[in-house]
Write a structure and sequence with these properties.
By secondary structure, the chain is α+β, with helices and mostly antiparallel strands. It is 38% helix and 24% strand. A hairpin with a 4-residue loop joins strand 10 (279-290) and strand 11. The mean pLDDT is 95.
Length: 345
């Protein structure tokens, strides 16, 4: 039987900051943007003390400040978080080569080939990560990735939850439908309109009803997932579909020079990432969001994949010619897609 472990670091960014500055411990800490709560940035993560005030990731920093005026706001130090991420993932690789990296603060590990008890392995992983990083994590262990992911969130922080298929009716079905991986705000709202609040209520619906409401693919997923069924494999290597950068201005801009300079800088960043990872791209996309949140994307596909900053920048500006700049600009983004490895044809 498969034994899949999902590890999720506890309030990762905030925990790293508390590790560097012990005086922050026990205080409401909010990480986001440049650390200025009056800016347009959003919350990347918040300490558990801050979460008690209703603060959560993706919330506007201004809203977080209103909910908790005494919170300590800090800028995102991504390079430092990446360094800590590499440390805890190095620990995981000592226990199994079958690791799926799914984000800066989480990963899956396949323990199926190990003769040791999964709980024993999990406790050793937690101890080694604490010893080597000073940080805690929460772990879920289950027969598949779906249940392992749910399990890692059940006893946060510093939790360890083991689930088996027989646990689904008693432990999973009473949970809110939103706890199911892949159920976002829109699906949650749709389900509520159908009178569905829990995973168990979702599991009680026939497949035909779900595919009728959500389409064949997603409806089938909800039918299986609500029953704890998941056969997705551990993916140890993947190729990116695209690389992108975007920025939101502190105040809406109409100055052409500012817009042009920002586009050039974003292009430079994207090209740098492509070259570092050994990719070229064929499709260039520009994203423009105006002050009223009206958003336009314009794309141009080149004849050959490129990693030339000059060529990509010129193409980005060609995309801009297809957008009428009659309003102030709030956000600009540049994306390269249709990627291929350098030297591959």
């Amino acid at each position: 039987m498969k034994r899949i472990l999902h590890l999720d670091m506890d309030a990762f960014f905030a925990a790293v900051e508390e590790r560097r500055k012990p005086e922050l411990r026990g205080k409401p800490v909010v990480i986001g943007g440049g650390g200025d709560p009056s800016s347009r940035g959003v919350v990347s993560t918040a300490s558990y003390e801050a979460r008690k005030y209703g603060i959560h990731s993706a919330m506007p920093l201004r809203t977080a400040l209103r909910l908790c005026p005494q919170a300590i706001f800090l800028p995102v130090d991504y390079d430092e978080y990446v360094r800590y991420s590499a440390l805890f993932k190095a620990v995981l690789r000592r226990f199994s080569p079958a690791m799926e990296d799914v984000g800066i603060d989480e990963a899956y590990l396949d323990l199926s080939e190990s003769e040791r008890k999964a709980e024993e392995i999990a406790r050793e992983i937690k101890k080694k990560i604490l010893d080597e990083t000073g940080l805690t994590c929460s772990i879920g262990i289950a027969p598949n990735k779906l249940l392992a992911k749910i399990g890692s969130d059940m006893q946060k922080p510093d939790g360890l939850t083991i689930l088996v298929e027989e646990d689904v009716p008693a432990r999973i079905w009473p949970m809110a439908a939103r706890k199911l991986l892949g159920v976002g705000p829109k699906t949650e709202a749709h389900l509520k309109e159908m009178g569905i609040d829990t995973i168990g209520q979702l599991a009680a619906l026939p497949l035909e009803r779900l595919t009728g409401e959500f389409g064949l693919s997603y409806g089938r997923y909800l039918y299986d997932a609500s029953r704890g069924i998941d056969d997705s494999p551990i993916v140890t290597h993947w190729e990116p579909r695209s690389m992108s950068r975007e920025t939101t201005f502190e105040t809406d801009v109409s100055n052409w020079q500012v817009i042009a300079k920002t586009m050039a800088e974003l292009t430079k960043d994207v090209v740098k990432s492509m070259r570092e990872d050994g990719y070229r791209g064929r499709t260039v996309t520009l994203k423009i969001r105006f002050s009223d949140f009206e958003t336009h994307t314009r794309s141009i596909s080149l004849k050959e994949p490129v990693d030339s900053e000059e060529t990509i920048r010129r193409t980005v500006f060609e995309c801009l010619k297809k957008v009428e700049l009659k309003k102030r600009v709030r956000l600009i983004g540049v994306r390269m897609s249709n990627l291929e490895k350098t030297g591959v044809r």
